[in-house]
Design brief:
Length: 606
Amino acid sequence: MRSSRLAATLLQIVALSAFAAEKELETIVVTATRQPTRASELLSDVSVIDREEIERGAHETIADLLSKQAGIQQSGNGGPGTVTDFYIRGARPEQTKVLVDGVAINSMDLSGSPLRFFPLSGIERIEVLRGPASTLYGADAIGGVIQIITRHGEPGLRTEAFAGYGTRNTLLSNAALSGGNERWRFRVDGNHASSDSISARKHASNRDADKDSYRNAGGAASLSFLPAKGHELGMNFRQNEGITHFDSATANGNFDDRLKFRMKQWGLHSKNTILDGWTSRLQYGASSDLQRTFSAWSPKGDLLHTENRQFSWQNDIRLPSLGQALIAYEHLKQEASPRRDYSASPEITTKSLLAGWTGRYAAHRWQISARSDDNSRFGRKTTRSLAYGYQLTETLRTHASYGTAFKAPSVYQLYIPIYGNAELKPETAKNVETAIFWEKGDHTASATFYRNRVENLIDYSFVTSTYMNVSKARLKGLTLAYTGRFGDWSVNTAYDWLDAINEDTHNRLGRRARNRAFVSVGKRWGAASAAVEAVVSSRRFNDHDETKATEMGGYTLFNLTSRYAINREFSVEARLNNLFDRKYETAYEYNTLGFNAFVGLRYSPR
């Protein structure tokens, strides 16, 4: 009933918006096609979180920000810095590709990626592509892609700073200096985050019952050289490191369990206009995820280090009257250490060729792509996708698509002693979806239905005591979304219905709610603005057997966010989360934050 009321409310808002004033705003998206494309011409389900939205929301972590997006569910094992999982359209965390400026940061263990450690201060925008995207980005893109576009220098000299304080002794701060001219651009910044946080587990005893604090500090630098029009050379580097404490759930709970981490990325790129209509981009980058876990089982620290090194050469070729062609080559080398934990060299190399064609003729649009990945462990895998769209009216368009994707077994699953299985096959997926979009001035509404069937799911088998290809899954759902403005009022709503089923047992997949909704209503008063948010989720189960013992109840959370521009340089941002101190869980027997407040002062000359 609750989901029906939300859907009805959304439709009413869409109908009312036809009477509002119009204002054309064109958003450019890269992730959906690997080429800059107008959002109104996309044939996929994409969200863009720009810098203004990041600052206006006054979020403390990237997990808080992403949990408000359509099609994403999140679970956390405690407060900030603890293990955080993102489920795009019901896919597992490691089935989502995570990119930073085009370079993959996915780890080779089962943790997915170190995304939870990434500071919001260094992000220009985030693009979320929902749905399989292996034809564009290779393995790990069964559920979708999250791409972070970092901040870079622009002409002129500019300084920025932010400092904020919140509940549980939470501190956030960052400062940056950027500048340049028509030939050179640079940016350097530093950031810090800390919180006393909460005890991660419910019913913790002894030392586990203490607060599990979090510390994260780092910096970034980028430099670009533009020798002539249509040519650019650039480099970037960023690193964050810190420590997060957690609870072990052992019998006595007397050890100070903690994780020391270091997340690092760097890259070089060259973008050149070869001929009129032909742009070439060369990129070489690397990402490093180092984690050392101290526990009662390993008091001296258990090290796990994943490093990705990626080379890509992409060519964008304009086809007269027929859109754009894409031809690219990628070489990805992934390595895990320490080597002593594996019976074979923990190194995987993937060589990839991909081609795509995005075009438009009259009211017709299309996107065709294919990719071949040659993996050093399991051989060659080919994926393909086809999307077709039609502009029904000036404000109404529709599209349908079909695509395949895969997830390669991790080094951990292949070679970890005793439990590893070198005979594992890749997980594969086939996805069909259809959508309708309505756009008029400041108002957009969409309805997207999808069905993603995943085979050869890899899971631990208690029968063989190893990892096996054990089951199939069906990820079926509907996403409704609307954003719009009515004068000084703004509305942002999203509703997701998800049917994530293990087809062998017919049970729902763990930690995924069947119904979830987000509503935000905001108002501006000159230099001030405020918004009320509501997050609604139905019940979920922690594991795959749907037992009452691990059922987590549904919940509704209310948040309040506000911002006041003191002048053109300074603004105050504030946020109140979980206004009514609702007790809820996203992971069974793990605590979540109750009522919490945060306020910050930003210096950002306009």
